Amino acid sequence: MLALYEQLRNPLTRLRDQQDRERLASAFPELNPNEVPHILALRRYLYGCPERFMDRNVYRTYLAWAQDRDARDRRGLQHYLAAHSTELDQAIMFLREVNAYDWHDERLDPKDDYDLVRFIDQRIHPTYLRVVEAVMTPFARLVAHFSRLDREKKPEGLDTWSVVQELSGGPSGNLCASYVNTIRNGIGHGGITYGQCEIQYRDKKGNTESFTASAIIRLLDDLLDACNGMAAALRVFFVTSREADYPPAEGGVVRGTTGGNAHSVVDC
């Protein structure tokens, strides 16, 4: 199979592919660079923006958790991933869409304060809310689900707030470190006041927190970096766990066959 793949490789990209394999092997030491073409599917973490800025600490936390859970409770992890494959597929799809926004690699140069407020109101706030609810929460819920089981608690009702509370203060707390409940509620329920130097967010209970425009932009960047770290960890976990019969996630994480233990990361 490998010999045939080598014959079919494009000679025009062979040198670049080899260079990228070496770089990816260094960036992801958990992967064997000889597992062609799996490792090249992670090439976006070399060149993509914002993917290449993924949070390495979150990546290591998420991957280590998945590997440990697989070793301790493979059947339970298999069952969860099969039951929640649609949710995780959608999270990957939403993350891919957000990563493709054209303003990630643009230099922020507002004409005036109004231009900056408009950028935050029309782009930063909706994106923060979408990433929190549609990407961070499904990824982190996987860990929170088993955390509750380990504490002999029922895993039902794990909404965003419950997921964050379950993980905060624990070894996986950094997965949700960029989540601020007051900001999420302020955006979701219209509790936002734009001041001259700060933006004030108000939750449903009347609690308020104020942030500068640059701090809000930084918070979204950190949230995206964390989510890209979790997505990368999922891809690496599936590639390095091919002997396990994990169900393929058709929408983005992994694609393969459940009967023959053949999984491969796709360019998602």
Q: How would you portray this structure in words?
A:
The chain is mostly helical and 268 residues long. It has two domains: 1-47, no CATH class; 48-241 and 249-256, no CATH class. The chain is built from nine helices and five strands; from the N terminus they run H-H-H-H-H-H-H-H-E-E-E-H-E-E. It has helices at 2-8, 14-27, 44-47, 56-83, 85-99, 113-150, 160-167, 181-189, 213-240; strands at 192-194, 199-202, 208-211, 255-257, 262-264. Strands 1-2-3 form a three-stranded antiparallel β-sheet. A two-stranded antiparallel sheet has the order 4-5. A hairpin with a 5-residue loop joins strand 2 and strand 3 (208-211). Helix 4 (56-83) packs across helix 9 and helix 5 (85-99) packs antiparallel against helix 6 (113-150). The protein is flat and about 55 Å long. Mean pLDDT is 85; it is low at 254-268.
